[in-house]
Amino acid sequence: MKNYSYILAALLASNAFSEGLVEERYQTRDSNQDRRIEAGIGNGRITEGEASVLAEYESNIDAAWDRVNEDGVVKQGERLRMKAKMDRQHNRIYRAN
User: With left for phi above 0 and alpha for psi between -120 and 50, is residue 17 left, alpha or beta?
Assistant: First the structure.
């Protein structure tokens, strides 16, 4: 019976670790997209109007992430939807630059 408790503890720890990685990936990607928008504004390739639209999309993505992550667990389907949202934002930034 002791072995089962060790296995259960290991599974829970690995799940918590993977949740931390999901959060870290989201934060890294979000900050990279913010940096790309700021760089586009700085070099003049993104206008103020485009920047405000991109910022609105960014805030929508942040709100969606908060809803997905409010229970502390990001399921695979939620993770895929967030990835799709961030991919679309990446493409918007790319087209604006």
Answer: alpha
Helix axes 2-42, 76-96, angle to 10 degrees: 10
Q: Residue 24 and residue 31: Cα distance in Å, rounded?
A: 11
CA distances from 82 to 46, 53, 69, 92 (A): 24, 19, 11, 15
pTM of model > 0.85: no
Query: For residue range 2-25, what is the model confidence (pLDDT) as tens digits?
Result: 566 656 555 454 455 456 778 899
**How far is CA 96 from each of CA 68, 89, 92, rounded to the nearest angstrom?**
28, 11, 6
Tokens of 71: 């229970």
The owner of tokens 């679309």 is: 88
Q: Which helix (H) or strand (E) segment is 36 a member of?
A: helix 2-42
All residue ranges of the chain with pLDDT < 70 are: 1-19
The CA distance from 69 to 60, in Å, is: 14
